[in-house]
Design goal:
Number of strands: 5
Number of domains: 2
CATH class of the largest domain: Mainly Beta
Largest sheet: 5 strands, antiparallel
Distance between the termini: 52 Å
Shape: rod-shaped
Helix content: 40-55%
Strand order of the largest sheet: 4-3-2-1-5
Radius of gyration: 26 Å
CATH topology of the largest domain: SH3 type barrels
Structural class: alpha+beta
Length: 105
């Protein structure tokens, strides 16, 4: 609502100030960009960094949960592939990025 008031045309009888309107428009665009950055982009970057850190610390024997909800224990780790034991003698290979959580023992 404040944006609508700031962008409203001046009352009749007063001269229009194009510089003032330009400044208020730029301030509004700048504030929208800042709000978008701090509410959307920055938290997503932080989560991605934490997820990458968790994946680099993954080791054999860790109990994990995948993005599809499969619980298991890490059996083997290759470059981008992790093999998870979901039952005795049942090993499933997953892309490393689908591991979402390391469950504490």
């Amino acid at each position: 609502m404040l944006a609508m008031l700031l962008m409203a045309p001046p009352p009749q009888g007063q001269g229009a100030d194009p510089t003032g309107q330009l400044i208020s428009t730029l301030v509004m665009f700048g504030s929208v960009i800042l709000i978008f950055y701090f509410m959307m982009i920055r938290p997503q970057q932080k989560r991605a960094k934490e997820h990458q850190k968790m994946l680099t610390g993954l080791k054999k024997g860790d109990k994990v949960v995948t993005a599809s909800g499969i619980h298991g224990t890490v059996y083997e780790i290759e470059d981008a592939v992790v093999t998870i034991t979901v039952a005795s003698n049942c090993h499933v290979r997953f892309d490393k990025s689908v591991v979402t959580t390391i469950v504490s023992n």
